[in-house]
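Throughout this chapter, every protein is written as a compact record of paired, labelled lines. An example of such a record is reproduced below:
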Amino acid sequence: MKYKVFAFLFSVLLFSCNTTVHIPVPGEPEVIKSNLYIEYQNIADTYMELEKFDKAVEFYKKAKKHKALYWSCLYKMGRAQALAKNYKEARKIYNKLLKRDKDNVDLQVSIAYLYAMEGKLSSAISIYEYLYTKNPGNADILVNYINVLISDEQFEYAKLKFEDLKNNYPDNSSIETFQKKFDEYDNEKDPSASDKKEE
Protein backbone atom coordinates (compact mmCIF):
# COMPACT_ATOMS: atom_id res chain seq x y z
CA MET A 1 0.00 0.00 0.00
CA LYS A 2 2.80 2.39 0.93
CA TYR A 3 4.52 1.55 -2.34
CA LYS A 4 1.36 2.38 -4.34
CA VAL A 5 0.95 5.76 -2.55
CA PHE A 6 4.62 6.60 -3.15
CA ALA A 7 4.36 5.63 -6.84
CA PHE A 8 1.22 7.74 -7.20
CA LEU A 9 2.84 10.80 -5.59
CA PHE A 10 5.95 10.35 -7.73
CA SER A 11 3.88 10.17 -10.91
CA VAL A 12 1.92 13.32 -9.91
CA LEU A 13 5.16 15.15 -9.21
CA LEU A 14 6.68 13.97 -12.48
CA PHE A 15 3.54 14.95 -14.40
CA SER A 16 3.43 18.43 -12.84
CA CYS A 17 7.08 19.07 -13.75
CA ASN A 18 6.40 18.21 -17.37
CA THR A 19 3.43 20.57 -17.79
CA THR A 20 3.64 24.21 -18.81
CA VAL A 21 1.83 25.37 -15.67
CA HIS A 22 3.87 28.17 -14.09
CA ILE A 23 3.83 28.49 -10.33
CA PRO A 24 4.65 32.15 -9.63
CA VAL A 25 7.58 32.98 -7.42
CA PRO A 26 6.62 35.32 -4.55
CA GLY A 27 7.11 38.93 -5.69
CA GLU A 28 7.58 37.94 -9.34
CA PRO A 29 4.56 39.89 -10.72
CA GLU A 30 5.87 43.12 -9.14
CA VAL A 31 9.33 42.56 -10.65
CA ILE A 32 7.83 41.92 -14.10
CA LYS A 33 5.69 45.06 -13.80
CA SER A 34 8.66 47.13 -12.62
CA ASN A 35 10.79 45.89 -15.52
CA LEU A 36 8.05 46.85 -17.95
CA TYR A 37 7.98 50.45 -16.68
CA ILE A 38 11.79 50.62 -16.80
CA GLU A 39 11.60 49.42 -20.40
CA TYR A 40 9.09 52.18 -21.19
CA GLN A 41 11.54 54.71 -19.77
CA ASN A 42 14.39 53.25 -21.85
CA ILE A 43 12.26 53.48 -24.99
CA ALA A 44 11.39 57.10 -24.16
CA ASP A 45 15.08 57.93 -23.60
CA THR A 46 15.90 56.42 -26.99
CA TYR A 47 13.21 58.52 -28.66
CA MET A 48 14.75 61.59 -26.99
CA GLU A 49 18.12 60.75 -28.53
CA LEU A 50 16.41 60.36 -31.91
CA GLU A 51 14.72 63.76 -31.36
CA LYS A 52 11.26 62.18 -31.67
CA PHE A 53 9.98 64.16 -28.73
CA ASP A 54 6.26 63.44 -29.09
CA LYS A 55 6.94 59.69 -29.03
CA ALA A 56 9.21 60.17 -25.99
CA VAL A 57 6.36 61.95 -24.17
CA GLU A 58 4.06 59.02 -24.95
CA PHE A 59 6.42 56.52 -23.30
CA TYR A 60 7.34 58.77 -20.35
CA LYS A 61 3.62 58.95 -19.59
CA LYS A 62 3.53 55.15 -19.39
CA ALA A 63 6.75 54.88 -17.37
CA LYS A 64 5.76 57.49 -14.77
CA LYS A 65 2.91 55.24 -13.64
CA HIS A 66 5.59 53.40 -11.66
CA LYS A 67 5.93 55.16 -8.31
CA ALA A 68 9.73 54.93 -8.20
CA LEU A 69 10.08 56.44 -11.70
CA TYR A 70 7.38 59.12 -11.39
CA TRP A 71 9.45 62.25 -10.67
CA SER A 72 12.35 61.51 -12.99
CA CYS A 73 9.98 60.64 -15.83
CA LEU A 74 7.89 63.73 -15.16
CA TYR A 75 11.00 65.93 -15.46
CA LYS A 76 12.09 64.20 -18.67
CA MET A 77 8.55 64.49 -20.02
CA GLY A 78 8.62 68.24 -19.36
CA ARG A 79 11.90 68.54 -21.24
CA ALA A 80 10.49 66.49 -24.13
CA GLN A 81 7.41 68.73 -24.27
CA ALA A 82 9.63 71.84 -24.36
CA LEU A 83 11.78 70.41 -27.17
CA ALA A 84 8.59 69.46 -29.05
CA LYS A 85 7.61 73.15 -28.72
CA ASN A 86 4.61 72.28 -26.56
CA TYR A 87 5.61 75.14 -24.26
CA LYS A 88 2.39 75.41 -22.29
CA GLU A 89 2.38 71.68 -21.48
CA ALA A 90 6.05 71.82 -20.50
CA ARG A 91 5.40 74.82 -18.24
CA LYS A 92 2.57 72.96 -16.44
CA ILE A 93 4.95 70.08 -15.74
CA TYR A 94 7.77 72.34 -14.52
CA ASN A 95 5.34 74.21 -12.25
CA LYS A 96 4.32 70.88 -10.72
CA LEU A 97 7.98 70.01 -10.18
CA LEU A 98 8.62 73.45 -8.70
CA LYS A 99 5.89 72.94 -6.07
CA ARG A 100 7.91 69.96 -4.87
CA ASP A 101 11.27 71.81 -5.01
CA LYS A 102 10.47 75.51 -4.51
CA ASP A 103 14.07 76.77 -4.46
CA ASN A 104 15.19 75.01 -7.64
CA VAL A 105 16.72 77.78 -9.77
CA ASP A 106 17.02 75.57 -12.87
CA LEU A 107 13.28 74.91 -12.85
CA GLN A 108 12.53 78.62 -12.40
CA VAL A 109 14.83 79.50 -15.30
CA SER A 110 13.10 76.85 -17.43
CA ILE A 111 9.68 78.31 -16.61
CA ALA A 112 10.87 81.82 -17.50
CA TYR A 113 12.27 80.49 -20.79
CA LEU A 114 8.97 78.74 -21.57
CA TYR A 115 7.00 81.93 -20.91
CA ALA A 116 9.32 83.75 -23.30
CA MET A 117 8.87 81.10 -25.98
CA GLU A 118 5.09 81.37 -25.57
CA GLY A 119 5.42 85.12 -26.19
CA LYS A 120 4.44 85.96 -22.60
CA LEU A 121 7.41 88.28 -22.21
CA SER A 122 6.19 90.23 -19.18
CA SER A 123 5.90 86.99 -17.18
CA ALA A 124 9.37 85.90 -18.34
CA ILE A 125 10.85 89.30 -17.44
CA SER A 126 9.33 89.19 -13.94
CA ILE A 127 10.86 85.79 -13.26
CA TYR A 128 14.28 86.70 -14.67
CA GLU A 129 14.30 89.95 -12.70
CA TYR A 130 13.51 88.05 -9.49
CA LEU A 131 16.11 85.37 -10.26
CA TYR A 132 18.81 87.92 -11.10
CA THR A 133 18.14 89.75 -7.82
CA LYS A 134 18.45 86.48 -5.90
CA ASN A 135 21.40 85.15 -7.95
CA PRO A 136 23.53 88.14 -8.97
CA GLY A 137 26.53 85.88 -9.60
CA ASN A 138 24.78 83.85 -12.30
CA ALA A 139 25.82 85.15 -15.73
CA ASP A 140 23.42 82.84 -17.60
CA ILE A 141 20.41 84.34 -15.84
CA LEU A 142 21.63 87.85 -16.68
CA VAL A 143 22.16 86.94 -20.35
CA ASN A 144 18.65 85.45 -20.57
CA TYR A 145 17.23 88.49 -18.80
CA ILE A 146 18.86 90.86 -21.32
CA ASN A 147 17.64 88.73 -24.23
CA VAL A 148 14.04 88.89 -23.04
CA LEU A 149 14.25 92.64 -22.41
CA ILE A 150 15.50 93.11 -25.98
CA SER A 151 12.71 90.87 -27.31
CA ASP A 152 10.23 93.07 -25.45
CA GLU A 153 11.94 96.14 -26.98
CA GLN A 154 12.95 97.49 -23.57
CA PHE A 155 16.30 98.54 -25.02
CA GLU A 156 17.17 101.27 -22.54
CA TYR A 157 16.63 99.03 -19.54
CA ALA A 158 18.40 96.17 -21.35
CA LYS A 159 21.39 98.49 -21.82
CA LEU A 160 21.63 99.01 -18.06
CA LYS A 161 21.72 95.26 -17.50
CA PHE A 162 24.21 94.96 -20.35
CA GLU A 163 26.53 97.28 -18.43
CA ASP A 164 26.28 94.86 -15.48
CA LEU A 165 27.25 92.03 -17.80
CA LYS A 166 30.26 93.89 -19.22
CA ASN A 167 31.47 95.01 -15.80
CA ASN A 168 31.00 91.70 -13.99
CA TYR A 169 31.63 89.21 -16.82
CA PRO A 170 33.93 90.93 -19.35
CA ASP A 171 34.76 87.60 -21.04
CA ASN A 172 31.16 86.52 -21.57
CA SER A 173 30.60 85.30 -25.14
CA SER A 174 27.25 87.16 -25.44
CA ILE A 175 28.78 90.64 -25.07
CA GLU A 176 29.70 91.01 -28.75
CA THR A 177 26.24 89.87 -29.91
CA PHE A 178 24.49 92.26 -27.54
CA GLN A 179 26.76 95.13 -28.55
CA LYS A 180 25.76 94.66 -32.21
CA LYS A 181 22.07 94.66 -31.28
CA PHE A 182 22.42 97.85 -29.26
CA ASP A 183 24.43 99.51 -32.06
CA GLU A 184 21.67 98.63 -34.54
CA TYR A 185 19.06 100.00 -32.15
CA ASP A 186 21.03 103.26 -31.66
CA ASN A 187 21.45 103.66 -35.43
CA GLU A 188 17.73 103.19 -36.05
CA LYS A 189 16.89 105.64 -33.30
CA ASP A 190 19.47 108.22 -34.39
CA PRO A 191 21.02 107.57 -37.84
CA SER A 192 23.57 110.36 -37.28
CA ALA A 193 25.03 108.36 -34.32
CA SER A 194 26.84 105.99 -36.69
CA ASP A 195 28.39 108.95 -38.55
CA LYS A 196 29.69 110.37 -35.27
CA LYS A 197 31.27 107.00 -34.41
CA GLU A 198 33.12 106.92 -37.73
CA GLU A 199 34.62 110.43 -37.25
Summary: Residues 28-49 form the longest helix (22 residues). The two ends are 122 Å apart (CA to CA). DSSP finds eleven helices and no strands in the chain.
